[in-house]
User: Fold these one by one.
Assistant:
Number 1:
Amino acid sequence: PSTRGIIAAISTYLAAKGCNITDSAQFDDLGTGQFFMRVVFASEQGIGLDEIERDFAEIAERFAMQRQFHDMAQRMKVVLMVSRFGHCLNDLLYRWRIGALPIDIVAVISNHLDYQKVVVNHDIPFHHVPVTAANKPVAEARILEIVEASGAELIVLARYMQVLSDAMCTRMSGRIINIHHSFLPSFKGANPYKQAFERGVKLIGATAHYVTADLDEGPIIEQDVARVTHAQSAADYVSIGRDVEAQVLARGI
């Protein structure tokens, strides 16, 4: 809850622990009365994260904080899911390979075999899990098995063209993000570029968001747009949009 003295207490504590703050961002949400803060710090006296987190408990209790500590040297384990549009997958693999995306891609899951060779050539496990209306519960159970076995903390739907069940969305709440090829909340569902073309819009975009049981309604993480004109076709929109999708998804991750 928002109150006076939170930033002062945190910065004073970290300084006393021999830590140097290298980045800090905070936001006071007037609508909810909640205060949010993200702090990056380095221990300059060799004090471990376990001790820093343990001794922070008194401050957390005093301010009724929800808090998490993360070691930035430990990369988040991520599973990518893709269908037959590979532009986001290829972009993420390239960023990961050159070190521009600080994650560990522990598996790629697809309901098609189109990108098996690409993934295997990156020395990443590839799992083919076909999905039909009849086998969807079995397929999702297999996906969850792969996620659990890999130790993945995050699932990224990199143009995975399947609607996840309510049960899976609930079980994995907060751990699945999606790239939607539209500037939400406009043009939800299928064929958003066709919808945008028919409406004559002058800006198209993409949205990275958390996946919830409500289709394309999850909290938005990142967005961007590109300008289009009436002289372009719906196919042109798709081509332009792919670049925006790849960039937005990478930033969202």
Note: The mean pLDDT is 94.
Number 2:
Amino acid sequence: MMQKFMITILLLLVVALADLHVPRKLLRKKGHGARYIVPTPSGTSWGLGGTCVNVGCIPKKLMHQAALLGQALQDSRKFGWEYDEQVKHNWETMVEAIQNYIGSLTWGYRVSLREKTVTYINAYAEFIEPHKIKATTRKGQETFHTAQTFVLATGERPRYLGIPGDKEYCITSDDLFSLPYCPGKTLIVGASYVALECAGFLAGIGLDVTVMVRSILLRGFDQEMAERAGAYMETHGVKFIRKFVPTRIERLEEGTPRKLKVVAQSTEGPDVVEGEYNTVLIAVGRDACTRNIGLDKIGVKINEKNGKIPVNDEEQTNVPHVYAIGDIVDGKLELTPVAIQAGKLLARRLFGGSLIKCDYVNVPTTVFTPLEYGCCGLPEERANEEYGKENVEVYHTLFWPLEWTVPNRDNNMCYAKIICNKHDNNRVVGFHVLGPNAGEITQGFGAAIKCGLTKELLDETIGIHPTCAEVFTTMEITKSSGKDITQAGC
């Protein structure tokens, strides 16, 4: 049974994970030939752990923390801290520290695989028969493996724009977190959570940052919260170019960083704008890594529009012995904890006799913009569509974190709201908070919502004072009342 399980997860490891044999300082060399993690046009590759550990959640949150520390330094003078030394940020020191930490994580994963007697095959896998894959190493050596069951977990890679100069001169989030030089004046193309998070921490460490937005911020999220998060970023130095898309990227000067010229076209008319930047970061979405692993040879269906794989409620594809988890699953949230939970529960069903399925409803998440945005459940727009606006009650409030009162900054920028279904005992169907430590707040409320949290239960809960999260226990004003929600303090 153990041997079968090892082979079952083979494709997950072979396709989704990368080489560990290359010293980290060499990983960014152009021409790096790793096929399993195909290097970016800039030459970036990485090790075990997938997107989250190497080029996603972990480095993103640490760079976000670097920016928060910069704000804390400014606040500290009002709290009595005195310092004369000029304060500046060193990009190289930050990147080295973060990459060293990531290296420790990837090494730990490899040790853990060995301790669990999981065979790790460092190669690129392709189906050649329904129960057979070919694995090709960096040196071109081929081995063949058969299994009764396969799990696909190949993840996604950033999408490019398809315009002149994009792959030659631009970078993506796959490159940013190990970039060996400070990116300088940066244009970020896109309005996804990746785009806004990167814009936020780059501005937070003192860089000149502009975001070019084609349509709306944070598509799929509550739009009131998205606009408030964007407004906060604008008050803290991030510039936005709305309703424009790049049409051409040109190199003006080589260097680290370069000097680039960006030409962009309005989405609403004939207007054209031009600008010069040191770095252009593309964050316009991600494509599933499913088109080149032989799925067509075994009949696994994919969504041709996005490359994602439709599955049933047990993560099973249309081919019964092939399963899919993570970002490549069609219609599911692209979040690391979701992939982990789905994978664990799938393994238990396949080999442990469990019947528990992954619950994709009411998944809490947080966007680590400068003012963090945490949410669980439905955006207000979706709640109105699903239940009817007349059946939805929204309770909301602005708030001012106590820690911000002494430095006297950003009053009434933080915002919280809950969305309730009036015809289901005022059950909370949407939870949204924009403020410091939003992720920590949202995690706990996520469990409560999963247990059927209602407005009455919130009202009966005693808050912890003075905290930001306590505002959810004292909300009285409904959006429909039109009453003022500004706050003077605690």
Note: DSSP finds 15 helices and 20 strands in the chain.
